[in-house]
Amino acid sequence: GVFLYNHLQQKVRNAEALAQKYKQQQEALSAQLQVVYEHRSRLERSLQKERGEHKKTKEDFLVYKLEAQEALNKEKQDSMNRYGALSSQHKILKNQHDDVKKQLLDLQLQHNSLKLEHRKSLEAHSQKFAQLQQEKDSEVTNLQDTVFKLREESKLLRKAHQEVHSQLLNAQAQMEEFRQLKEALQKMPGLR
C-alpha cells in the first residue's frame, strides 16, 4: 500500500509538472499570437495610409489635368481672337494684306506648336500616372499577400493553442483522478 501510495504520489507530481509545462506553452503561444495580431494591425494601418496617398495623388493629377485643359482652351480662345482681329484688319487694310497673312500664319504655327507641346506634356503626365498606379497596385498586392500569410499563421497558432488547451484539460482531468484516488487511499484503514 505504501509503495502504491508513493507510486501514485510520483504520478501526481509528474502530472502537475506536465500541466505546468503545458500551461507555459499555452502562455508562450498566446504571446506569439498577440504579436501576430499587432503586426497585422500595423499592416492594415499602413495599407489604409497608402490608399489615402494614392487617392490624393489621383485627385492632384485630375486637378492638374483640368488646369491644363483650361489653359489650352484659353490659348485657343486667345488665338481665335487674334485671328479675328487680323482678319478684320486684312479687310480694312488691303494694302497690308501680305503682311497680315504672314502674321496670321506665324500665329497658327505658334498655336500648333503650343498644342503639340501640351499634348506631349499630357502624354508624359499620363505615363507617370500609369507608372504610379502600377507601383501602388503592386504595393497593395504585396500587402494583401502579407495579410493572407499572417491570417494563415494566425489559424495555425489558434489550432496549436486549441491543442495545448485540450492537452491541459486532459492533464487536469488526470490530476483530478489522481487526487480522488489519493483521497480514497488515505481513507483506507490498512494505510493508516
UniProtKB/TrEMBL annotation:
PANTHER family: GOLGI INTEGRAL MEMBRANE PROTEIN 4, GOLGI INTEGRAL MEMBRANE PROTEIN 4-LIKE. Residues 5-60, 90-135 form a coiled coil. GO terms for cellular component: Golgi membrane. This is GOLI4 protein. Transmembrane segments: none annotated. Keywords: Coiled coil. The keyword Coiled coil applies. It comes from the Eukaryota. InterPro entries: GOLIM4 (IPR042336).
